[in-house]
Design a protein that fits this description.
Helices cover 32% and strands 30% of the residues. The chain is α+β, with helices and mostly antiparallel strands.
């Protein structure tokens, strides 16, 4: 596993653990973006609680899985998206309308695309999950 994109590695590891029926995933290394994305996924009931274990070399996140993820992954390249362009990316990355979330980095933090639409702001697409 290459460490060029820690967020992609984290999401693929979560997906592998989810598919193999595990109820816990250990993500290494930890980063602020990974923690924020996990927080958004937790708020939308895709994953359970998580804690960061400090080990002095990259740290590790211990994540409880709920079995609610069918697919998740990063969006590459990280497209810039305006507040009225979310429909196009929803069609591309999500299964159906109102099913799943796009995770977006905006000036007001990392949030799901529904909130970005409500707040009328755009940002950069980071990941999707359904």
């Amino acid at each position: 596993m290459s460490l060029n994109d820690p967020l992609a590695n984290a999401l693929s590891l979560i997906l592998i653990d989810e598919k193999s029926g595990r109820n816990e995933s250990r993500i290494k290394p930890s980063s602020k973006i990974i923690r924020k994305v996990l927080e958004v996924m937790k708020n939308n009931n895709y994953v359970g609680d998580f804690e960061e274990i400090k080990d002095g070399r990259g740290n590790m996140i211990k994540l409880n899985l709920l079995g609610n993820i069918n697919k998740c992954g990063v969006i590459k390249p990280r497209y810039s998206v305006k507040n009225d362009e979310f429909e196009k990316f929803e069609e591309r990355y999500l299964l159906a309308r109102d099913m799943g979330v796009l995770i977006v980095s905006t000036p007001s933090g990392i949030i799901v695309h529904h909130e970005a639409k409500k707040k009328n702001i755009g940002g950069k697409l980071l990941a999707y999950c359904y």
